[in-house]
# Entry
Amino acid sequence: ELKITILDEYFYHIIVGRNVLERLKDFLRTAYFNPKLAIVGKGVHDNFPNLTSELQRVFEDVMVIEDGEKSKELETALYIIEKLWERKASRWDAIACASGGSLCDTVGFAASIYMRGIPFVQIPTTLLAMIDSSLGGKTAVNYKGTKNIIGSFYHPSIVASDLRFIETLPERVYLSSLAEALKYGFTLSEDYLSFLVNNRKEIISRRDDEVMELVLRASKLKLDVVREDPRERKGIREVLNYGHTVGHALESGSKYELLHGEAVALGMIVETKYYDKINGTELDKIVSKVISDYEILKFVNLNSVCEIEEEAYTSYILRDKKRIGDRIRVPVLLGIGRWELRELPVTSFAKETYSILKSEI
Ligand code: NAD
Ligand code: ZN
# Structure
């Protein structure tokens, strides 16, 4: 199955389905640029040994490198730039990345700064990368333990999501991906959230039809937001940061022992409890219940999360990109599918959310 969406401002193609790499090859054969180098993450390589040979038929060169959050560093981006430089890549040469969000964010960043930007092809291999990180043009690496603070806005030329990759994801990685799928439901659409709730068993067991529907619906929800506010400057795209202020601090604070999706799931629970206290709402009941039914935190040792020191936690909140002076601008959930942006004092945000983490998680 094939679906192409075009994001007006950037005209890029998104292909979703099974065996879409064939389609990708056709696209690349007719593209104006030259497919130079494909980077493949070790996780997907170990499970799909044929992927490298398939890509070798299109790209001049294929390299397998370590992926995962701990490789999402400036050094990895520089290593990729070095490989482009060694191959004398020019602005007409394209680089691809087949991996999860961590390595794709890193390769995307390298692609955006090498010669001020060369064509970039996203081949997301986790559910999270398919529905979130490959769409919307944010690239980044972590720096001194702080999440995503070096990065750029840079869109790929094409995104090819092959659902076959979902089959080999370790259970922990797959479940963690679902946090972002739920995020779109909580913040943007009650109807889509009902789909997730009603089809939970099928989704958790990775049934083809439901996973396909999830990928298409989630991608559309995200792209609708990105299209309105591509650079997060109009107070619209900020909604996608729901759960991410606390989430990023926990991810960093755990030294990346927590997966991104797990940290975001915890972040959505803690932030919602905090906003409930401010607004007198009871949204946490729904948010916590859906997250726990989906068992996203099944592999997380909550005691060790609670051992993150307050000082470290606060320092990550203070380094968050959304801080403006002594305030932090965050999307606050008002109801399911309803939210607004608020500027809250950053020190009380850190203090209150930390105390919720300690006492209620
Ligand atoms: P990940 O990229 O860290 O991958 C998780 C693990 O899955 C890795 O160990 C990897 O080797 C393995 N893996 C990948 N594909 C596989 C496959 N098909 N079979 C078996 N194993 C496989 O995790 P992720 O959840 O994909 O991405 C999280 C990252 O995405 C975070 O760094 C987050 O900040 C980023 N992100 C970015 C955006 C954005 O807009 N750019 C949005 C959301 C998240
Ligand atoms: Zn995220």
Notes: The pocket of nicotinamide-adenine-dinucleotide (ligand 1) is lined by residues 41-44, 47, 67-69, 72, 99-103, 105, 125-126, 128-129, 132-133, 136, 138, 148, 165, 168-170, 173, 176-177, 180, 260-261 (CB under 6 Å).
